[in-house]
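Posting this for the archive.
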Amino acid sequence: MAFSGYIPTFKERHSFAARAKDAAEARQQQQNKIPVVIERFEGEKYLPLLDRCKFLVPDHITIAELMQIVRRRLQLHPDQTFFLLVNEKSIVSNSMNMYQLYQQEADQDGFLYMVYTSQPAFGSIK
């Protein structure tokens, strides 16, 4: 199913207060998990949409393990490449764990924001 219209981001669909409350509740209920929002990059044409964008990810898994989870959810062919960007700008080390990444890159609302794309990008995308 092709969708050509603009899809509002998680931040655009939910107020800061609602996002902050949601992230705080998630962290309080499951302290060993990181609240993560993973969305398709705005200009992405080749990768499908995820069935949802909000995830609670174990804090001990590495970026490489998270990428395998996302790859499986996207049902990508083994030959298809994709990249995860943090805060729409940074490619991070695959060996970094989610706790370390969260400490460095979490948004003020308590979520860690990531986008996936089929093309690597360096510097700011916007």
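The domain at 11-117 is CATH 3.10.20.90 (Ubiquitin-like (UB roll)). The chain is about 30% helix and 20% strand.
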